[in-house]
Write a structure and sequence with these properties.
Elements lengths: L2 E5 L6 H13 L3 E6 L4 E8 L8 E9 L2 E2 L10 E4 L4 H5 L3 H12 L4 E4 L3 H6 L7 E2 L6 H6 L3 E2 L5 E3 L2 E4 L5 H15 L3
Length: about 190
């Protein structure tokens, strides 16, 4: 059975956390949610309102973390999921979070990153020379880190799958599941 690590925390995007978790569990795979601490955290819902220049944020669901980052052994996992929301903005400043992500990058294990999730990949040095997408306002961040930004629903570069945000959840998990089935022993 595949073991997949999903990393998030307070202000992680609810639709990206739960869609990925349930879609991967639907395949019969084990998904552990890791956060800075093993506790419940509050997710958020980012939405787009007419007349607003950027997304709005509303409270989401409470999410129970299975593990704190200090408890994570990344070698025990076959793949990594990085949902967006605001969580990646502060997680990229947590050395143990960056160390976990760096393991998946260095090992070339499958990674699925959504919306602001690539901020963790940037912090781990995992985007240089790659082609990715993300929330479009992060294009300057990706380019400054040496990546090529493409504004489309899903971008696959090797074992890395990226999308712009929760409206692209379907293509995100479709491609990630395809990669997991083709590159990881079942």
């Amino acid at each position: 059975m595949l073991k997949i690590l999903l990393m998030s925390g307070d202000a992680g995007e609810a639709q990206e956390i739960y869609y990925a978790k349930y879609r991967l569990e639907e395949e019969g795979w084990l998904v552990h949610i890791a956060a800075p601490e093993k506790r419940a955290f509050l997710s958020v819902v980012h939405d787009f309102e007419p007349g607003f220049d950027t997304y709005t944020e509303k409270p989401g669901y409470r999410v129970e973390a299975d593990l704190g980052f200090a408890e994570v052994d990344p070698t025990a996992y076959d793949a990594l999921v990085l949902p967006g929301g605001r969580a990646p903005e502060y997680l990229r400043n947590r050395p143990n979070a960056v160390t976990i992500v760096r393991h998946f990058v260095a090992s070339n294990k499958p990674i699925a990153a959504n919306c602001h999730g690539p901020l963790l990949l940037i912090a781990a040095g995992g985007v240089k020379g790659k082609t990715l997408t993300c929330y479009p306002d992060l294009e300057p961040d990706l380019c400054a880190a040496g990546a090529e930004f493409v504004n489309r629903d899903v971008v696959v570069d090797g074992t890395l799958v990226t999308v712009r945000g929760w409206p692209d959840n379907g293509p995100w998990m479709r491609e990630f599941v395809r990669i997991l089935k083709s590159t990881t022993p079942v």
